[in-house]
């Protein structure tokens, strides 16, 4: 298989990977990750967004889960931050994408990471109105303060 080298190939590879993610082309995403030995799995766009963050923001649940799992399997850092210090978990919580939240938590996402404004993932969920009883039941008990748990 041909392997690319150099910074420009990484930038091009990142653009192709993000395009594959946005167009639900998982085979192309796998090919790009293989061709570049996964070097771009945690690359950042000009807006400092990672492919994992892009994947959890997808509107289609099936595509969102498929790409998040692929990227994590290929070594994406689950706690990698964007330019504002936000993680994929923070974005998934804000969007109410519980499927992505579960995948990220299973892969050791840290819910206590604070972004540039001092907010955690759970704060984004609450502000966006996604911290209602059904999703909270699915979240690990460690996310819920001891005095708020239904013990």
From TrEMBL:
Matches recorded under Gene3D superfamilies: Ankyrin repeat-containing domain (1.25.40.20)
A Pfam family recorded for this sequence: Ank_2
Keywords: ANK repeat, Repeat
Protein name: Uncharacterized protein
ANK repeat positions: 84-116
InterPro entries per record: Ankyrin_rpt (IPR002110), Ankyrin_rpt-contain_sf (IPR036770), Dendritic_Spine_Reg/Scaffold (IPR050889)
């Amino acid at each position: 298989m041909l392997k690319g080298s150099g910074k420009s190939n990484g930038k091009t590879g990142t653009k192709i990977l993000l395009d594959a993610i946005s167009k639900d082309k998982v085979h192309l995403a796998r090919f790009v990750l293989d061709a570049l030995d996964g070097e771009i799995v945690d690359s950042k766009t000009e807006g400092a967004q990672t492919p994992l963050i892009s994947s959890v923001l997808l509107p289609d649940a099936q595509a969102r889960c498929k790409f998040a799992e692929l990227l994590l399997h290929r070594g994406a850092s689950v706690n990698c931050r964007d330019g504002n210090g936000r993680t994929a978990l923070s974005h998934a919580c804000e969007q109410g994408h519980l499927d992505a939240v579960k995948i990220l938590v299973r892969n050791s996402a840290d819910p206590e990471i604070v972004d540039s404004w001092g907010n955690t993932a759970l704060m984004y969920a609450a502000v966006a109105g996604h911290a209602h009883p059904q999703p909270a039941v699915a979240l690990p008990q460690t996310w819920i303060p001891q005095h708020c748990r239904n013990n």
